[in-house]
Amino acid sequence: MGGLSLVAGTALRRLLPFALLVALWWLLVWALGVPERLMPSPPEVAQRLYLGLVADGDMWTHVGATLRATLLGFAIGSLLAVAVGSLLAMSRTLELLCYPAVVLIQSVPKVAIAPLVLLWMGFELRSTATLVALICFFPVFVGTFVGVRAAPPVLLDLFRTLNAGRLRTFLHCNLPNAAGSILAGLQVGWGFALVGCVVMEFITGTGGTGFLIDNSANALDTRTAVAAMVLLGVLGYLGGSLLHLARRRLIFWEGDRHDG
Amino acid sequence: MLPSGKKVTELALKDVSVAYKSRRGSVLALEQFNLRVQPSSFVSVLGPSGCGKSTLVKLVSGLLRPTTGTIEFDGVPASGARDDVGVAFQQAALLPWKTAMENVLLPLRLTGQPVGPAMARAEALFDLIGLSAFRDRYPFELSGGMQQRVAVARSLIRDPSILVMDEPFAALDAMTRENMMVELQRIWQETRPSVLFITHSIQEAVFLSDRVVVMSGRPGRIIEDVAIDLPRPRDAHTLGSARFAELTAQLRDMFQAA
């Protein structure tokens, strides 16, 4: 009984901020008398979500497309970022040669190259995943680079007295030491990834939640547009929460110090 | 039972000087330093802070090459880190994501040696440091003194001929330090590597050593070499004995003159 009420209490505490947000939204729409063609109220959006996910199910294909492209691009971009970040952090020569280039490329807003990506990759999953990969690369790269470089000097000294060599030092010391920082980069990168995906879906207009928002907003169907936005929010939140959970499980030795 | 190889390696530092380059020119950390550590003997190096004690540790553990002079093992000049030298640092330097046992086995894993044959030795080392019940715990679950003991076990896993210890108890509280002194003596008597023990505690040096070497301030040179004739095994009574008081007083005078 006690355990059950504790779980219920925790759930309540987690849900309360969302409930407050919805209440505020409802209040504003009602108090300002906003017409539905500009901003629907929460029950209207809930109704559309019910229709799109349960009764009719027409939204699943779009959510699926977004999730597929985002996951694929996120996986590719993150893996590349961890690899490149590790190499540059472990080698001063590579850092000197490549770091300025990486920063230079980063200073171009990724969204600006979306039309070019489309030109190179064509209208399918490929172009969306490519933009996602490009856009989530940098936060993961920085997280990896900083984390690998942050290995405590005394541990590096120890590894040198043990004749560990660069690869073993990386695998047994730098990389595990960077895990927390890499996961923090992934958390930021996941949010970026969704942005990249939605922007590409705006442009390609072939499907996905981005397409759904663009298309329904043009038709003044704000219920659908806001419902799709809610779904995107859920994707972003779920991904972030999963990564947060992974961080706590994986980096058990840091306890709760780096939570948040 | 802790099987231990025959240890005959003699460590010698010959005319060693170390100069560090800094922004304001070069700084001499050690100058014409000569020290011989007989096989299986316990030698402490006592000196004021900044006298080049840590430089000494780096030299013997292979982290640093002397600017002039040589480090010799059995008369052969050394180049780089060696398998037969164990090192314990001021901090325990344990990997936080590995258990105590995995940390002790780390030197073998890093050199790609099979761990199986060393398991018996690892277990014996845990018995020796009194932490058999804690071998599967992670460092953050251990106290500072326990962590330092795990670090000592790790430095002994490859049965080193020479053990270099850089103020290994400096970060511990006074009570723990006293216990650790007694424990280290016991561990040393069972495993018998030569020990080069760096400290700024006169008590620690006298209690543990066969010889205490006193260094001058920078650039570090040896100004005194004192044989400690207290009978072993030494214990809490040793700390209260007249001879112990006499030796510590003698060293304190030299230390102040340094």
Walk me through this protein's architecture.
The complex is a heterodimer of chains A (260) and B (258). Chain A has one domain (45-254): MetI-like (MetI-like fold), CATH 1.10.3720. Chain A contains ten helices and no strands. By secondary structure, chain A is mainly alpha-helical. Chains A and B meet through helix 7 and helix 8 of A and helix 2 of B.
Concise summary:
The complex is a heterodimer of chains A (260) and B (258). By secondary structure, chain A is mainly alpha-helical.
Secondary-structure element string of chain A: HHHHHHHHHH
What is the total domain count of chain A? 1
Q: CATH topology of the largest domain in chain B, what is it called?
A: Rossmann fold
Q: Please provide the ordered H/E string of secondary-structure elements of chain B.
A: EEEHEEEHHHEHEHEEHH
What percent of residues of chain A are in strands?
under 5%
- Given helix and strand content, the structural type of chain B is alpha/beta
Q: Classify the fold: give the CATH topology of chain A.
A: MetI-like fold
Average pLDDT of chain B, rounded to a whole number, is 89
Please name the two chains that share the biggest interface, counting residues whose Cβ lies under 8 Å from a Cβ on the partner chain: A-B, 20 and 23 residues
Helix-and-strand structural type of chain A = mainly alpha
End-to-end CA span of chain A = 30 Å
- Based on CA atoms alone, the radius of gyration of chain A comes out at 22 Å
* Name given to the CATH architecture of the largest domain in chain B: 3-Layer(aba) Sandwich
**Poorly predicted residue ranges of chain A:** none
Q: How many H/I helices of chain B? A: 8
